[in-house]
Each structure stands twice: as structure tokens, then as C-alpha cells.
Amino acid sequence: MDQLSSDAFGKFTLYSSLTAAGFLIVQSFVLCSMMKRCRTNVFFPKIKCNTKGRIMASASSNEFHLIVPDKAQSAEIKLGSDFTIPCHLSPGISAVDMEIRWFKETDCVCLYKNKGVIEGRSYEGRTGLSTEELNRGNVSLNFRESRESDIGVYLCQVISEDRTEEITVGVEAREESVKSVNQPSKIQGRQVHLTLHASNRTWGENQRMKIEESALVTELEVNYMKVIHQTISKVFKKQGKKLEQTELQLKASKTDMERVLQQLETIREIFGVENKKSLDKKESQMQQIENQLLQITKYTEEKQSQLKEKDTQLENMSKQMSQKEKLLENTIKEMETSKQQLETLRQEQMRQEEMLEKKEQLRISEMNEKSKCLEEIKSLLEERDRKIKDLEKEKERLDEELQDKDRRFKDINAKLMQTVKEVEEKQNKLQGKHTQLEHIHKMMSEKMRRPENKAKELEDSKCPPE
What we know:
- Helices cover 62% and strands 15% of the residues.
- Residues 1-5, 28-61 and 177-190 have low confidence and may be disordered.
- The longest helix has 187 residues, at 276-462.
- Strand 1 (48-49) and strand 2 form a beta hairpin.
- The relative contact order is 0.08.
- The protein is of the alpha+beta class and 466 residues long.
- Strands 4-14-13-12-7-8-9 form a 7-stranded antiparallel beta sheet, covered by helices on one side. Strands 5-11-10 form a 3-stranded antiparallel beta sheet, with no helix packed on it.
- Helix 1 runs antiparallel to helix 2 (205-271).
């Protein structure tokens, strides 16, 4: 009995040390993953988006993809009521043996793996999948009592062997002013409707790493708590069985003692006072038996005290386990708060990245415009260079023509000078002849005047005087 109890105590202490070590390992793993010290290379298949917002992976043996039904792409749900984020496999094959993962941004909402559903810590009791509908390829996410915190972008991933399909669905809020006093929303003076629609959002590498970390942490927390509860229940069952066996042994020894005492009393009554020798022998035997009984009682008392000590130790161990569970819950709460802080930081970083992307796009567009302008200027400069070269060639040709014309002009000028000289000589000759002609003309005019004068004189001489 002592050996059995010591073995049980040793196993229990070993189990408690193992659970404490496991708790430290899980805590360190989660902290490392959340502080980005754990950098694992995760394989993601190449994805592409089709016209209906569906995202497909590279082709494999199981051909399927995810769709959002057309009738559910613009569904409206009032805040506080149950709603479903629709998603189906196309074709409608069974998804029972597949792994299904739903995320809100990078936070794990719900996991389906090994035919079991695991809810995220922030969504316990509010989310789930319809396991009956999985045979028909329906992997929609069901929500109970919708809240304002449910507004956002959701990612659904379906993994089958080496194939991964995913689709993004947005849940947006549409507000309407209401005149009545009793409002269905928590916000006074307005009513909120949730609108579902397929989204074309793309996920970066950092976001995908955060998604994988969230899924691993959720799965590890659930599995760790299950292992702790199973091992604790097994240990307590074993201890209960051993305690029941010791109690049965004590009861059997007590009944044996009572039976021996009854036999002694009957022996005393039978033999009486007459047979003293036999009585002495019997008394000595009785003393021996009583001594044995005292030893047995001492042994049983020692065992009972040891069992009480073991019980107290078990109680202390259970208290320590409860304290460790409380410590685990506190650390998980702290992790959740830090996770929320990280989520806000991530969202801020995402907004900054989006702003940077927009700025980068604007800069790229400006650079493209400038490059286009530069190309146009370059083409214009090349055109101008070509024109300049053509003009230079034309200039060279014109220069050659001008030189040729200059040579011709010089020849013509020389000829002209010569002709001018000849003309001047001829003019001189003509002037000489002209003077000779004038002289001859004068002489002729004088000769002509002479006969006229003579005729006048003859007339004068012929006329009689009055």
C-alpha cells in the first residue's frame, strides 16, 4: 500500500512538473510569436482573383474553388440578430475531411480540423460551422447576436491536401436615423444594418504570417487545455481507485479482528475457569493476537495518517493546479490585451502602409508621366536632330551650289567686264563717229542753207523794186 501511494504521488508530481513545463513552453511560444521573434517560412500558393471575387490557387488533383452566392452578396442583417457569412465550394463536394479556417483581419475566429470545431477566444459561444452542411460543400460562418465589433473584413481558407482556396468577404455597417425612443442598436439615435459583400482585398506577406500565428495559437491553446483536463481526470481516477482499494482492505482487516474477538469470547465461555492451563495458553495466544492486532492497528493508523498526508498533498497539488490555471487565464487575458494593442498597431501600420502605397502609386504615376514627357521630349529632340542633320546636308548642298554659282558669277562677271570694256570702246568709237556725223551734219546743214540763201538772193534779185 505504501509503495502504491508513493508511486501515485511520484506520478502526480511528475505530471504537475510536466504541466508547468508545458505552460512555460506555450507561454514562451506565444510571446515569441507575438513579438515577431519566431520567423517561419510559410508556403502560400499563388492566388489570383476572378471576376466574381473568387480567389483560386494553382491547379491540383482536387479541382474546386470558393464562391459567395449571388443572392447573399448584398444581404442586410440588423445588429443584435443572428447572421451568416456565406461561403460554398464549387462544385458542391464534401468538405468534411478538409481544414476550414475563418479570420477577421488577422484574428482567428473559427477553425475546423480533424472533424472538430475550435472557436477563437474572443468569439467563444458566438460562432460555429454547420457540420451537417459540410457534406454539401457549405462552409459558411454562423454568428449569434451580432455586435458592432463584428464589422470588418473576413477571410475564409479551405485546405485540402496540397491545395488551398480562399475568399474575402466584407461586413459593412449602414446607419439609418430613427425617430422612436426604443432603439435596436446600442448607439442611441441610429439603427445599424450589417451588409455582406464579396471583397477583392489582397493580403500581404506580413498579414499572412500573422494569420498563421493566430491559427496556431488558437489550436495550441485548445489542445493544451484538453490535455490538461484529460490528464488531471485520469490521475484523480487512479487515486480514487487506490483509495477505494485501501478502504476495502481496512474494512476487511476490521472484520477479521471482530471475528477473532468473537471467537475468543466463545472459547472463554466454553472452557470456563476449570481449564486454567488451557486458558493461560489461550490468554497467551490472545495476548499474542492482541499484540498482532495492536501492530495491525498501528500499521493501519500509520497508513491512514500517510493517506491523510497524501490527501493533503493532493489538495495542495490541486490548489497549485488551480492557481496555475488562474495564472494561465491571467496570462491569456494579458496576451489578449497585448494582442488587441498589437491589432490596433497593426491596423495603424496597415493604414500607414496603404497611405505609403497610395503615395508610391502617385509617385510612380508622376514618374510615368514624367518619363512619358521625357520620351516625348527625347523623340522631339531626335526629330529636331534629324531635321538639323537634314538642314546641315541641305546647307552643304546649298553651299556647294553657292560656290558653283560664285564660280559662275565670277566667270560671268569677268565676261561682263570684258564686254563692258568692249562696249566702252565701242561707245568711244560711236561717240567719235557721232561727233563726225554731227560735224558732217553741220556741214550738210550749212551746204543746204547756202542754196537756200542763193535762191532767196535770186528771188530778191528777180523781184522789181516798188
